Amino acid sequence: MKKKTESAVIGAGMWGATLAQLLALKGHEVRAWEFNGSIAKSLNSKRVHPALPGFRLHRGVRVFTALEEALRSPELLVMAVDSKHVRGLSRQINALLKDRPLPLIVVVAKGIEAGSLKTVCEVMEEELPRARQKTMILTGPSFAVEVAAGAPTKVVLAGKDPGLVKAAAAMLEGGPLNLELSDDRLGAELGGALKNVYAIGSGIIDGLSKAAKNSEAAFLIRSASELKCIIMALGGRSHTAWGLSGMGDLLLTATSAKSRNFRFGREIGKGRTPQEAQKRIKTVVEGFAALENARALCARHGIETPVINSIWEILYNGHKPSSILEAAGFKRET
To answer: What pLDDT does 333 receive?
Structure first.
């Protein structure tokens, strides 16, 4: 009998649980790690997830709270934790796998690290030196809750080695998940990290009493153009900026109330402070954390970002939410 492919999923939040499910449905033996003991217990005993309505976890998935238990002998490792935890966990993974073959690594976390201003894949490579060719990003227009419900979804899998990207895609693709392969990992990562920032701006416009979808459309065009400039200035490609991991992800995240970043921005547009808005959203707002790092990264490379700067002024300097309209190209009212 052919041995089952063993996959490790680090983080059993919405994305982690969803991808663990898809891998199990493909016949993988899935060993997941989850820091939150109550979520791990619920998934193991009741096979349900508190954030995924109607979801039932496949019996082929086992969830552990000890990292070493999830890393027995994986051929594929999915990193599905919040970006701020990636460095610490990568360091632990490196120690646990130091005498063993390194699996293919697919990252779904998105962000730019404070201080180093590195992308998530770059952080992993720094802590896992053997992973330089094996680390990839899975990104694009996708809400985990929709993938879990079976909605057809097309995303990008990007890495430095086309052969290894193809091998990882063969392990991942199936069910609702369709993959477009790319070797522009940096461009794909930047699109995934920065779209959360622009989604806050779009939400701010949605929350303004005088603004509407007309205004949001103008803002999105300016945001997409700025995103393209950033990606290309840092070494990514124009095709990536206008594709699924750039424009596609931006359109989804910056126009839907399913996006916590959009909802957070909408609360700001209604006049609430960032602290008040965060309390209403309750879960982590990735774009708020990414905003300062994105601004610093662009400043380091001399990239002009009037849209990002406008969002930063509103959130950190107390500028009026309506000032976002100027970043969208609207003339200042006199």
So the answer is: 62
